[in-house]
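Lab channel / #folding
Pinned by the channel admin:
"Please post every new chain as: sequence first, then the structure tokens as a reply. Keep commentary short and put observations after the output so the thread stays searchable."

First post following the new format, from NK:
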Amino acid sequence: MRTLKLGTTGPAVSALGLGCMGMSNDLYGPADRAESIATIHAAMEAGVTLLDTGDFYGMGHNEMLIAEALQGKDRDKAVISVKFGALRGPDGAFLGYDSRPKAVKSFLTYSLRRLQVDHIDVYRPSRLDPDVPIEDTIGALVELRDAGYIRHIGLSEVGADTIRRAAAVAPISDLQIEYSLLSRGIEDAILPTTRELGIGITAYGVLSRGLISGHWDKDAVRGARDFRTISPRFQGENLDRNLALVEALRAVAEAKGVSTAQVAIAWVASRGDDIIPLVGARRRDRLSEALGALDVVLTAEDLAAIEAAVPKGAAAGTRYAPAMMAHLDSEK
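Reply from TO:
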């Protein structure tokens, strides 16, 4: 497994990370606990070190699942990245964000207990709290870092101005943000800013939540509690237009002798050594396919064919529903 450094100040991590959100029966429908744990084990055996989660995934379930998977494993072989700050009700509804310094410290305390670790490798606010200056939040994270409870400070889904303000307070290892063939907004201002400041990118949604995986099956989520049932890109004519893009991408993949998902992941990885794709595999077969993307070398001709199949800005529909888009500092 090739390793890369998260920015100029962050830890060395595997060139592919495992996003664990889908392993909680919360946002992507039912998940199998035993298969999820087996997938984490298979990832680590393949050399994957970066495990990404959030304290609000399954309201703590995801962290406890990771803790179970890490039992008996070498803690130093896992780089655990945790997002915090999202508030949720007992019915699962999102209630906003809280990044006040005292809340940050409370969130961390519970995460350490659920994960059964003495430190978290990368800790980051999940979104910008509009009621709390980012400087205050980062200041609290500096205190936690200096006390040894976290190793590195990250950001998630924030724009260029917020990135600069945060970096003025403390070194930022990486920005976690959606980046894929269908979501290329970071290329305009955010990516140039992170590169100027030496901040890495951990890219989630590299398969657009399965839409460009080549495996999308609308019947699989029908009637299920699945985030994609309300996502604009999976609705009506938007879905038809986006699936047409997938078929064009599939043709490129087949000509190269690889899968559609592998081409999509390889494209994100090809954007630079400062970008680590996170794959949300929750089954070992999907993990194996994703790992195969690391062996895909895209030539200039391949990249041109991919660009022709899925041009920048071709996606139909926004990446989140309007209410969720309103919370994204990265989209302002």
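NK: Residues 3-210+266-296 form a domain with the TIM Barrel fold (CATH 3.20.20.100).
TO: also worth noting, The CA atoms of residues 87 and 96 lie 5 Å apart.
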